[in-house]
Design a protein that fits this description.
252 residues, mainly alpha, globular
C-alpha cells in the first residue's frame, strides 16, 4: 500500500467509524443500522456453508471446519441483531415484497451495495459465487472485512448508553460479535499463510486494503448524493416465528 492510499485508509476508516458510532448511538437511526447488520450477517451464512462444503469436497478439512464454524457464528450474529430489533418492536423488511426496480426502472437502492460493487470491481457476479470464487480472493477480501468489523463493533459498543436495558443488551452482543470477527480474521490470515510466503501474503492483503479504501470512498460518495439519507431496512412489528428466516441478501 502506498503512502497516499494509507492516508486515505486512515481517513476513510475514521470517517466510517464516526458515522457508524453516531448512527448506532442515535435511537432514530439505530434500528436501520441493526437491520443492515442482521441482513449482512444472516445473508452470509449460505455463502460460507457452500464454501465449507466445497473445501471439504476438495480435501481441505482444516478450511472446511473453519468455514463451518464461521457460518455458525454468522447465523448467531444474525439472531443477536434480530433480537435487538425485536426488543424495540422492529423487524427487517420483507425483501420479497419489494420490487427489484423502481417506477423509473432503476434498481431499488436496498438491493444494491455501492461498497461491494467497488470492492469487487473487475469481478463479474459469476466469479464471486461460492462454487467459482478464487480461494485467495475470498480469503483476502474477507480477512480485511472481518478484521475491520471486529474493531468497528467494539467502537459502536463503547458509544452505546449504559442506562437503558436495550442498549446494554446490544452492547453485550456487539462485543461478543467483535470477538468472533477477530477469530475469523485470524483463521483467514492463517489460510493465506498456508498457501503463500509471508511477503506474498502482505502484497495480497495490501491489494485488498486498497480496494477497501476505494469502496469506502464509493460508499461515502453515494451517501453524499443521497444527502446522507439511508433507505429504510426496517418495519414495525416483530417476527411471527422465534427463529428468523435466513435472508439471501447481504447488505453492506
Amino acid at each position: 500500500m502506498n503512502f497516499f492510499t494509507y492516508l486515505l485508509h486512515l481517513a476513510g476508516s475514521s470517517a466510517s467509524a464516526y458515522i457508524g458510532a453516531s448512527q448506532i448511538r442515535d435511537p432514530l437511526t439505530r434500528p436501520n443500522v441493526i437491520a443492515g447488520f442482521q441482513l449482512a450477517e444472516s445473508g452470509s451464512v449460505p455463502f460460507l456453508q457452500a464454501l465449507s462444503d466445497r473445501a471439504a469436497a476438495e480435501g481441505d478439512t482444516w478450511l472446511a471446519e473453519k468455514l463451518a464454524r464461521h457460518a455458525s457464528d454468522e447465523k448467531r450474529h444474525g439472531q443477536i441483531f434480530a433480537q435487538a430489533l425485536k426488543r424495540i418492536n422492529k423487524q427487517v423488511i420483507d425483501f420479497k415484497s419489494i420490487p427489484k426496480t423502481t417506477t423509473e426502472g432503476k434498481p431499488d437502492e436496498r438491493r444494491r451495495s455501492p461498497f461491494f460493487e467497488a470492492y469487487f470491481q473487475g469481478y463479474p457476479p459469476e466469479a464471486i459465487k461460492p462454487e467459482n470464487m478464487d480461494w485467495t480472493v475470498f480469503m483476502a477480501s474477507t480477512y480485511i472485512l472481518e478484521l475491520d468489523a471486529s474493531k468497528d463493533f467494539v467502537r459502536m459498543a463503547n458509544v452505546l448508553p449504559e442506562d437503558e436495558s436495550n442498549s446494554v443488551a446490544l452492547k453485550k452482543g456487539l462485543l461478543s460479535i467483535a470477538e468472533d470477527e477477530t477469530g475469523h480474521a485470524a483463521y483467514l490470515y492463517e489460510a493465506l499463510q498456508r498457501r503463500f510466503p509471508e511477503a506474498t501474503v502482505q502484497q495480497i492483503v495490501d491489494e485488498w486494503r486498497t480496494r477497501k479504501v476505494n469502496a469506502l470512498l464509493a460508499m461515502v460518495s453515494n451517501m453524499m448524493q443521497k444527502s446522507g439519507k439511508m433507505s429504510s431496512l426496517v418495519q414495525d412489528g416483530v417476527p411471527t416465528e422465534e427463529s428468523e428466516e435466513e435472508s439471501e441478501l447481504a447488505v453492506a
